[in-house]
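Section: protein folds

Sequence with per-residue tokens
===
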Amino acid sequence: MTMNVGLNTSPASTASALARGTLDPAQPAARSAAVAASESRSAFPEAALLSRRPLRYNVQLNQQLTAVQQADDYLAQAETRLLLLRQAASPAEKSRQSGGLAQHLEGRNRLSGGSVDRHLSASLQQHNSVSFALPGSEALLNNPGGETLLFALGGRERQLAAVTLPEEGLPRQVLTRLNTGLGRLGIHARQTVAGELTFSVAEAGWERVSQHLSVRGEGHNYPADAFTLLAPRAEEAQADALAQQLRRGEAPGAAVTRGMLEHITAQRGQLRQQQGRVAARLEDMATALSPARARESAAALGQTLSRAGGQFQTLATALGAQANVHPATVKNLLG
């Protein structure tokens, strides 16, 4: 279900929300950092308008509004928690802020609704993926040998995918064969600029792939007598690495903290640009009908309904279709 809410984050609301769980009233420095981390901005769009009249916007635009808000809210809190950790003076306070930041990073996918990826970059299309390498697969591109590989993905259910490699061929031909087969398992293969073979899978399916992916070959690249359990190695993401470091009780270095803050600032800047583009779309959707013209249109519609007799279902379907028609078209039809 799409969220119909507005982007309206104020410094006071962000700071107070964090204060209930992490801030001590006796620490003005930490409280100042929380306030400084959140920027004041106008509502986007007006929250009351979205909540009272959600059908003002189509489903696609509602989803875009929701993704922008969730991404910005999550990154704003990550920024605030990083600043609080940097400002923490006592060991107890550092430990508390480290735990809060680690929990925030580990809950990224849930807290951001999938709108922020593993690198803390906004992902408004919410198609986050995990890139990984498969040890032992390096020879597939340059020495396919015509081998037929049978991949198996276990877990709740067992899925199989066969890949017949060419006897000899260019790397792109091997990639085509791999993607044709592995695509059934939701896995995509590609060659990096350095010529290395890497794979990717949707983030939701990474846990399963990381634990239950196996392959059986014909003795050329992989053994033929039994399935070999593979050990996918995920590309390191700074957010995940920092969360693990914090859980070990290690404080991040100044360079790491500064780099993450700069990255978050850049991402939030891009989100503000996105907000501007969506605001322009909302402005274009605003009705240009005068009150008198609106009354005339309503009267004409009433006459049409009265003449329809028992055909209300047909008219209801037609009116429902107008919800996804460009406003200018609807205005012309009403005129």
Summary: The mean pLDDT is 79. The first helix runs from residue 11 to 21.
